[in-house]
Amino acid sequence: MCHAIPVKLIEKSGDIGVGERGGLRMEINLSLIPDARVGDELIVHVGIALAKLEGESSAGNSGSAGNSNEDSEVTGRLLQ
Amino acid sequence: MKEVVTSAHGTGGKSSFDLVQKIFKRHLAGPLLSPDDAASFPTPLSVGGEAATGVESLLVTTDTHVVDPIIFPGGDIGKLAITGVVNDLLTRGGRPQFLSLGFVLEEGLPLSSLSQIVASLAKEMNRHEIQLLCADTKVVTAREGKAGLMIASTLFGEPINPNNPNSQVGGCSTSAVAMSGPQVGDHLILTGPLGSHGLAVLQARETLPFQSTISSDCASLFPLLAPLLYENAKINYMRDPTRGGLAGILHELALQFKISFELDESSLPAQPAVRAGLELLGLDLLEVANEGVMLLFVPEAESAAVVERLRMHPLGQAAVVVGKVRPSRPASAVQAPLVMVTALGGRRVVPWPEALNLPRIC
Amino acid sequence: MNEALRTLSKGFSSVRIMEFCGGHTHALVRSGLLSLLPKQLRMIHGPGCPVCVLPPHHLQAVMDLLGEHPSLTAVVYGDLMRIPTLGGQTLAQMPPSSVKMIYSPMEILKLAEEHPERQFLFLAIGFETTAPATAVLLKELRRRNTKNVFVLCLHVLTPPAVQAVMDSFCGGADGTDLGSPGDRPEAIIGPGHVSLVTGISCFEAMAQRFKIPIVISGFEGSDLAEAVAMILRLLQQGQTGVFNQYTRALRPEGNRQAQSLLAEVMTVRSSFVWRGLGELPRSALALNAEWSEFDAEKRFELKYRSVPEHPLCQCGAILRGQKRPDDCRLFNKACLPTRPLGACMVSSEGACHAYLQRVEEEART
Predict the structure, then answer these.
(1) Predicted-complex ipTM score
(2) Which of C130, C213, C226 comes nearest A76 by C-beta?
(3) Residue B312: which domain range?
(4) What is the least distance, in Å, from the CA of A44 to any CA of chain C?
(5) Does the beta-carbon distance from B346 to C36 stay under 8 Å?
(6) Which residue, among C232, C223, C240, C302, has the nearest Cα to C59 in the 3D structure?
(7) What is the Cβ-side half-sphere exposure of residue B216, based on CA atoms within 13 angstroms?
(8) Is residue B3 part of a domain?
C-alpha cells in the first residue's frame, strides 16, 4: 500500500518544489511540508511530500512501553 | 465469456506465449520451424542443386514492429525495424545481408514523419551493408487518436564462420557458429544495462511524473558480438531480452530447454535514472523491454574472459554475469523456473510477466 | 541477519505476526526476507491493499456512468486500470478519451484547464497516505475556481480494518469461518506510510485492547527484518504498545498539516463495504458538505449494481489470515493475475498475488 519514495528537494518556489532522484527530476507539491528546505530528503507519495527524512534520533513512540529508539538501535546492532 | 485478442497478448509475457502455442503453432508448426528467434534453412547446395550462395545453409528471421510513439528518445520504429532483426539473426550467429520489408501505414500519418522514419531505417540498413530485395506498402484506417505505422521486416544472412569467413562449413540445420544451447552451470551474461528502452518509450507515450534524459538502448549488437563469434568465443547460446524483458525470455527458455535459472539481484545492471524511474512508477526492471542488450550463455570457466572481451567495446562496457543455469526443477515443486537471490540474501520466485506494465501508487 | 532472527526466535514454538500493509507484503516477498524468516514465524498477510479491498461495484458504476456521459473522462491511478468488473471488462479497455491514467492528482488541474469542454471524474482511492493528496487537489480546485472536476471519494481508513481482522478471531458463535482467539496474531507490523500522515497514537487502543506489540515499519527488506526482530524482543519481554521502527521518516504525531486538511475537507462515512471484509462501521471517508460542489456522488447519479464474488473465493478468510492462498481451489488455476477472481489476486500487493513469488516451502532452509 502507498508506494512512496525518498526524493531530494533541489528547488523550491512556494508550495511547489523540484525533487531529484537518480538523475530524474520531478515536481513535488510541498503544501503538507511547508518548512521543507532545499537539500531536504522528502518522502513523496503521488507527487505530494508527506514527511522529511531525518537522522535516526528524530522520533520516539507513543510512550506506552519503553523507548523504541533504543529498541531499534539494539536490534539494528543485533542484525549487523 | 467470448475470448478475444487483448493487448496482454502483445506484451511478450505469458499471454503472448500461450497465444502462439494454442493458435499459431497448432496450425503452423512444421519440421523446420525454429523455437529460436531466427531459423536456419538449407540452400540448394545442400539439397543437391546448384549452390547459389556458396554456403550450405542460410539464416532467416522475421519481426513485426509496433511501437507507440513511432519516434522516441534514442530511436524510432525505422531504426528498430533493422536493429531488431539484426539482433535476432545474430542470436543464431548470422551476418545480416538481405532484407524484405512490409509497411502498414495509418491514415493521417504526416509524410514528414514517414520520411524521417524511412531515412532512419535506411541509415541503419546501410551501416550493416544490408541489401533490400523487396518491399510492400498498405494503408489502413487509423485507431482512435493515433496515426502511426507498422513495419514487418525479414532478414536473411549467412552464418558467421569462425574458422574461415570465406569457406563453406556447417550442416543444413545448424549454423557454422556451433551453439549448443544453454547448459546447466552456464553463466548468464548481460551485455548492457536493463530497462532503458521500455522506460524511454513509456516516457514518450505517457505523461510521466518526472523529466529525464533516459533514451532507448535501441542498437544493433552486431559490432559488439560479431568479433567474439569470429574469434570462436565459447558462447553456448544467445537471446535478446526484448518484449517481456529478462523475466519473459528466461521463462520461455526454461520451457524450451527444460532448465531453470538463478539470478543475482545485486548484479543486475541498470542506469541510476532507469532504476529511479521504475521505482517511482512501481515497475519491475526484469519485465521492461530492452532493444540493445544481449543475454549470453557461457560456460563458467570462460565467463570472466567473455565479460572482459565485451567490456572492450563501447556497447559492452556494463557487461556482467547476472546468474546461472540450474537443472530443471522436479515436477513436484511449485512452478519456479526463475528464482532470484535477493540483495538481502533471501530467495524469491520471479513470475512470468503477465500483463502490461502500468504505473502504480500502491 | 538470518542468524540474529534465528537466535531471537529461539524459545518461541510459533509466532503469528500480521503485516497489515500490502506494501509490506510486497516487500517481504520481493526482498526475499520471507524466505529467510525462521520457520516458527508465521506471517499473516493483512488487508492493507486499497485496490484489493475496493468492491468492484464502484468501478462498475463509474463504467456505466461513462457510457451515459460521453463528455466525461474518468481519471484513475494505474492500479485500477486492469481491475475486472462484470463480464471481465476493465478501464484499460475503454477508449482513451473516456479514461485517463494519472500518477499524481495534481495532473488533473492541467487536464481540466486544457479540456474545458470535458468533465473529469477522479476515482480517489487509497488509505490515509493517499487521502491528503485528494485534499490538496480539492483546495487547489477551489482556489482556481475549476468547475469541471469531480471527486469520487473512496478513501478508506486503516484502524477499522486492523480492528476487523483482529476481532474476527473472537471465536464468536455467529459464523463458522471465524478463527479462535488462539489463532489471533500476536503482533502486528504497522503501516509506515499511513502513519506518516496519521501518527502512531491511533493504533494505541488496539495494542492495549489485544495486549500486543504493534511495530510501525519502513518498507525496505532491512526495515522489515528489524521490525520482526523488535517484535520478537518485545514478545520476549512481554511488552505491549506501539513502537516505531521507521524513525528516519516517522514522527509519532504524524503530519499535522495533512491531518487538519483532511478534517477540513472530508468526513467519516457511517459505514463502508470492504471487499473481503464486508461492511465496517466508520471505515471510510467522504467529502464533507462544504465541498459538495466537487462531490461526484452529489453531481452524478451513480447506479450501484451488485457484482457477485466467485462462490469458491476464499479472499475473506485469507484477508483475515485464517486461510492461506493455496487453501483456495481457485488459486493459480482459475484465479490468476491476468484474470483475478478475488480481491487478493488483483494487485501485486494482494496476498495471493504475492504468494506466487514465494519460494516454495521445501526450498527454504
Answers:
(1) 0.91
(2) C226
(3) 187-349
(4) 10
(5) yes
(6) C302
(7) 30
(8) no
